[in-house]
Amino acid sequence: MKISYIAVLFLICLSFVAFQCDEDHLNLTFDEEQAKLNVLKSQIEDLASTSTCNEASECKFIGLGRKSCGGLWNYLVYSTSIDTEALKSLVEIYNQKEKEFNTKWGIASDCAVTNPPTSINCKNNVCVAVY
Fold first, then answer.
1. What was the pLDDT predicted at 19?
2. 3-state DSSP percent of the chain in helix, strand and coil, to 5
3. Of 42, 49, 69, 74, which one's alpha carbon is 20 to 30 angstroms from that of 90?
4. Rounded CA gap, 60 and 11, in Å?
5. Which residues 6+ apart lie within 8 Å of 119 measured at CB?
6. Where is the secretion signal located (predicted)?
7. In the 8-state DSSP scheme, what is residue 70?
8. What end-to-end distance do the CA atoms of the chain give, in Å?
9. Rounded to 10 degrees, what is the CA torsion of 28, 34, 40, 41?
10. Could you say which residues of the chain have pLDDT below 70?
11. What does 4-55 look like in DSSP terms, one character per residue?
12. In the chain, domain spans
Protein backbone atom coordinates (compact mmCIF):
# COMPACT_ATOMS: atom_id res chain seq x y z
CA MET A 1 0.00 0.00 0.00
CA LYS A 2 1.43 3.35 -1.03
CA ILE A 3 1.24 6.35 1.24
CA SER A 4 0.86 9.61 -0.59
CA TYR A 5 3.47 12.32 -0.25
CA ILE A 6 0.82 14.60 1.22
CA ALA A 7 0.07 12.11 3.98
CA VAL A 8 3.77 11.72 4.79
CA LEU A 9 4.24 15.49 4.80
CA PHE A 10 1.21 15.84 7.06
CA LEU A 11 2.61 13.28 9.52
CA ILE A 12 5.99 15.01 9.56
CA CYS A 13 4.37 18.39 10.22
CA LEU A 14 2.17 16.88 12.90
CA SER A 15 5.17 15.38 14.68
CA PHE A 16 6.97 18.74 14.65
CA VAL A 17 3.94 20.42 16.17
CA ALA A 18 3.39 17.67 18.74
CA PHE A 19 7.00 17.57 19.91
CA GLN A 20 8.04 21.18 19.55
CA CYS A 21 9.68 22.81 22.53
CA ASP A 22 8.66 26.19 23.77
CA GLU A 23 12.07 27.65 23.00
CA ASP A 24 10.94 31.19 23.79
CA HIS A 25 11.16 30.52 27.52
CA LEU A 26 14.76 29.32 27.14
CA ASN A 27 15.93 32.76 26.04
CA LEU A 28 13.99 34.83 28.56
CA THR A 29 15.65 36.51 31.51
CA PHE A 30 14.57 35.73 35.05
CA ASP A 31 12.54 38.96 35.24
CA GLU A 32 10.85 38.36 31.87
CA GLU A 33 9.89 34.83 32.79
CA GLN A 34 8.63 35.90 36.20
CA ALA A 35 6.57 38.67 34.57
CA LYS A 36 4.95 36.13 32.22
CA LEU A 37 4.09 33.94 35.20
CA ASN A 38 2.60 36.92 37.02
CA VAL A 39 0.44 37.82 34.01
CA LEU A 40 -0.87 34.25 33.77
CA LYS A 41 -1.56 34.15 37.50
CA SER A 42 -3.46 37.45 37.28
CA GLN A 43 -5.57 36.07 34.43
CA ILE A 44 -6.42 33.02 36.52
CA GLU A 45 -7.30 35.10 39.58
CA ASP A 46 -9.35 37.51 37.45
CA LEU A 47 -11.34 34.64 35.95
CA ALA A 48 -12.00 33.12 39.37
CA SER A 49 -13.02 36.49 40.80
CA THR A 50 -15.79 36.86 38.20
CA SER A 51 -17.56 33.81 39.58
CA THR A 52 -20.70 34.20 41.66
CA CYS A 53 -22.66 31.78 43.79
CA ASN A 54 -26.14 31.37 45.21
CA GLU A 55 -25.31 28.44 47.44
CA ALA A 56 -22.21 26.71 48.81
CA SER A 57 -22.67 23.65 46.58
CA GLU A 58 -21.60 25.82 43.62
CA CYS A 59 -18.26 26.61 45.27
CA LYS A 60 -15.05 24.69 44.50
CA PHE A 61 -11.32 25.12 45.02
CA ILE A 62 -8.17 24.28 43.11
CA GLY A 63 -4.48 24.20 44.06
CA LEU A 64 -2.56 27.11 42.57
CA GLY A 65 1.20 27.35 42.19
CA ARG A 66 4.10 25.02 42.77
CA LYS A 67 6.69 25.36 45.47
CA SER A 68 10.16 24.14 44.66
CA CYS A 69 9.57 21.39 47.24
CA GLY A 70 6.61 20.22 45.19
CA GLY A 71 3.75 21.49 47.32
CA LEU A 72 1.10 24.07 46.52
CA TRP A 73 1.33 27.75 47.39
CA ASN A 74 -2.38 28.19 48.01
CA TYR A 75 -5.90 27.26 47.00
CA LEU A 76 -8.04 29.35 44.71
CA VAL A 77 -11.77 29.42 45.44
CA TYR A 78 -14.27 29.80 42.61
CA SER A 79 -17.84 28.91 41.69
CA THR A 80 -19.20 26.85 38.86
CA SER A 81 -20.72 29.99 37.30
CA ILE A 82 -17.57 30.43 35.20
CA ASP A 83 -15.95 28.24 32.56
CA THR A 84 -14.41 25.80 35.03
CA GLU A 85 -12.65 23.79 32.33
CA ALA A 86 -10.85 26.93 31.12
CA LEU A 87 -9.88 27.74 34.71
CA LYS A 88 -8.57 24.22 35.34
CA SER A 89 -6.61 24.30 32.11
CA LEU A 90 -5.03 27.68 32.92
CA VAL A 91 -4.14 26.51 36.43
CA GLU A 92 -2.56 23.34 35.06
CA ILE A 93 -0.46 25.40 32.63
CA TYR A 94 0.51 27.87 35.35
CA ASN A 95 1.48 25.15 37.80
CA GLN A 96 3.65 23.42 35.20
CA LYS A 97 5.33 26.67 34.14
CA GLU A 98 6.04 27.63 37.75
CA LYS A 99 7.53 24.18 38.38
CA GLU A 100 9.79 24.62 35.35
CA PHE A 101 10.68 28.17 36.45
CA ASN A 102 11.65 26.94 39.91
CA THR A 103 13.88 24.24 38.45
CA LYS A 104 15.47 26.48 35.82
CA TRP A 105 16.30 29.31 38.21
CA GLY A 106 17.01 27.24 41.35
CA ILE A 107 14.20 28.86 43.33
CA ALA A 108 14.01 27.95 47.01
CA SER A 109 10.83 27.94 49.05
CA ASP A 110 9.52 26.75 52.35
CA CYS A 111 8.38 23.17 52.34
CA ALA A 112 5.38 23.78 54.57
CA VAL A 113 2.26 21.89 53.61
CA THR A 114 -0.57 24.18 52.54
CA ASN A 115 -3.84 22.67 53.71
CA PRO A 116 -6.94 22.88 51.56
CA PRO A 117 -10.04 24.64 52.88
CA THR A 118 -12.07 22.58 55.32
CA SER A 119 -15.21 23.94 53.69
CA ILE A 120 -16.41 26.69 51.40
CA ASN A 121 -19.33 29.00 52.06
CA CYS A 122 -21.29 31.27 49.77
CA LYS A 123 -21.54 34.72 51.35
CA ASN A 124 -23.01 37.69 49.49
CA ASN A 125 -22.78 35.71 46.22
CA VAL A 126 -19.03 35.09 46.70
CA CYS A 127 -17.38 31.78 47.51
CA VAL A 128 -15.36 32.04 50.72
CA ALA A 129 -12.89 29.43 51.96
CA VAL A 130 -13.02 28.28 55.56
CA TYR A 131 -9.79 27.01 57.12
1. 39
2. 50, 15, 35
3. 69
4. 41
5. 56, 129, 130
6. 1-20
7. S
8. 64
9. 170
10. 1-25
11. PHHHHHHHHHHHHHHH---GGGGS--HHHHHHHHHHHHHHHHHHHHT---SS
12. 29-130
